TrEMBL record:
Organism of derivation: Weissella hellenica
Keyword entries, A-Z: RNA-binding
GO terms for MF: RNA binding
InterPro entries from the UniProt entry: RNA-binding_CRM, RNA-binding_domain, RNA-binding_YhbY, YhbY-like_sf
Lineage start: Bacteria, Bacillati, Bacillota, Bacilli, Lactobacillales
Protein name according to UniProt: RNA-binding protein
């Protein structure tokens, strides 16, 4: 797990600016299955957004805590009901953002 510094987070926030949320949290809330899907997506993309739906009983603080305590995924930014997530891919061919982040 890469420990992110300010410049690295700034780069990741800028890279995620144009992205649309890839996952949503709804009525079912936070489950182990949902977290496993996040980890699979991190291995393919390394950086994406998650949106909390209006009908969800989870708030951004709960979601951030759940993700960071139960996985190696880091929350880079929280804007309203949207979180930007980053994690280093286990597969070398999918490491695009993490290679750049380590150079910063």
């Amino acid at each position: 797990m890469i420990s992110l510094r300010g410049k690295q987070k700034r780069y990741l926030r800028a890279s995620a600016h144009d992205m649309r949320p890839l996952f949503s949290v709804g009525k079912q809330g936070l489950t182990k299955n949902w977290l496993d899907q996040l980890e699979d997506a991190i291995n393919k993309r390394e950086l994406f957004k998650v949106n909390i739906l209006a009908n969800s009983e989870v708030d951004t603080t709960e979601l951030k805590t759940f993700i960071e305590e139960n996985s190696d995924i880091q929350v880079v930014q929280t804007i309203g009901h949207t979180l930007v997530l980053f994690g280093e891919s286990d597969e070398k061919e999918n490491r695009h953002y993490s290679v750049t982040v380590q150079k910063i």
